[in-house]
Amino acid sequence: MKLNKKIKILIAADGGAGSGKTSATKMFAKKYGFQLLSSGTLYRFVAIKLLNNKKNISDYSFLKKITKKIKSKDLKNKNLYSNKVTEFSSIISKQKNIRKLLKQYQKKFSKNRLAIIEGRDIGSVIAPNADIKIFFKASLDCRARRRFKEYRKNKNSISFNEVKKTMKIRDLNDTKRKISPLRPSKGCVIVDTTKINKKQVLLKLSKILELKIKLKYGKNIQRPFI
After folding, report:
1. What 3 state SS string does the chain have?
2. What gap in Å lies between CA 44 and CA 10, rounded to an integer?
3. With contact defined as beta carbons under 8 Å apart, do 143 and 17 qualify?
4. What is the mean pLDDT of residues 108-117?
5. Model pTM?
């Protein structure tokens, strides 16, 4: 199912680790033909560039150079998800200068006709005027179970309690950090994924989209879905 070419929609999706925002936005983007950007991959990209080139986190000229030349294919590199890159990207995401540089890329991406940006500060900082703002949440136990299953699938020997403990610490860091803390943005729709499956989440998002199209375009577009 695709949207009428006259429709232009920007969606900001935020949520903590394991909240279901990534899998939900991927399904949604595929169903309706949206361009999807996961802001986390941008920080991973910067992390791997700094590591591979043995550059310091404070090397602004290098940071400015690499963030100006980011291409979509750069964000599909499997090496972005190595443990070393994951740990380092968590550190650099707290750097104000790096967040500022990557904000420019995200702002440019938001100009796509049908765009979804998912992350932790999209609705509050990157796209506060997005047509639709969604905040995904789920209980700590639920999110930890999801992440634990991912680790088991990748043959990681970490225990469930370790996953839960790590996630609790990350939640604290995300919500209490001074720069772009994780929080529901003004006017967002909160989607709790604790007790609903992926299909139910997709249905909920579809209804949110349909309502927004009616409010934004009214009767000006007779067939929004083609």
Report:
1. CCECCCCCEEEEEEECCCCCHHHHHHHHHHHHCCEEEEHHHHHHHHHHHHHHCCCCCCCHHHHHHHHHCCCHHHHHCHHHHCHHHHHHHHHHCCCHHHHHHHHHHHHHHCCCCEEEEEECCHHHHHCCCCCEEEEEECCHHHHHHHHHHHHHHCCCCCCHHHHHHHHHHHHHHHHHCCCCCCCCCCCCEEEECCCCCHHHHHHHHHHHHHHHHHHHHCCCCCCCEC
2. 23
3. yes
4. 96
5. 0.93
All domains of the chain in start order, with CATH: 9-217 (3.40.50.300)
Q: Return d(Cα 87, Cα 80) in angstroms, integer.
A: 11
Whole-number pLDDT of residue 19: 96
Identify the CA nearest to 118 among candidates 165, 75, 151, 65: 75
Phi then psi for residue 149, to 5 deg, are -65, -40
Residues 6+ apart with CB under 8 A from 110: 10, 117, 126, 127, 130
At residue 86, the pLDDT reads 84
Do the beta carbons of residue 206 and residue 24 sit within 8 Å? no
